[in-house]
Design a protein that fits this description.
The protein is built from five helices and four strands, in the order αβαββαβαα. By secondary structure, the protein is α+β, with helices and mostly antiparallel strands.
Length: 160
């Protein structure tokens, strides 16, 4: 007869339930500190649904946060818009200029959030835009730039 260990058996059960019940459905999530409050997502959503620019009729509503004096998008949509970009992202996610709206399952959302935190440590620009929105190195490392050791033709003519 197997010995019952309440702690390990409970942990095994929790892990099993977590794997079985893990939400794999995609949804639209907001990284509030990246939101500029432009209201583009709110207007686009209402237009896609009703064919008129009427923010109250969409699935995205911007709410004013009195403490931080910023607008926060509240999304009541699962991302199943009739229109989507070629990658399957809802239009509001595609058109968000800062990358504050992200679409994915729980693991993808966590991965994007981790990517944002890692890249913010290296590049200050990613405090206001998402690295997946504009994935370029603003300050290439010297070792990556082989021409950094040689002078450009303009620099050569100036130094002569």
């Amino acid at each position: 007869m197997k010995n019952f260990n309440a702690t390990s058996d409970l942990w095994t059960l929790i892990q099993w339930v977590g794997r079985v019940m893990k939400p794999s459905t995609k949804s639209i999530n907001v990284i509030t500190e990246l939101c500029s409050g432009c209201r583009g997502c709110e207007l686009l959503c209402s237009f896609v649904i009703t064919r008129e620019f009427s923010p109250g009729k969409g699935h995205i509503r911007l709410v004013k946060d009195d403490h931080q004096a910023i607008s926060i998008p509240l999304v009541t949509c699962s991302g199943t818009c009739p229109k989507a970009d070629p990658d399957g992202n809802p239009l509001c996610v595609t058109m968000c200029p800062t990358g504050a709206l992200i679409y994915g399952n729980e693991d993808e959302i966590v991965a994007k959030r981790r990517e944002l935190l890692e890249k913010r440590a290296v590049e200050p620009l990613f405090r206001v835009i998402a690295p997946w929105k504009y994935p370029f190195p603003v300050h290439p490392r010297q070792s990556d730039n082989r021409e950094a050791d040689t002078e450009s033709p303009v620099q050569q003519s100036v130094s002569r």
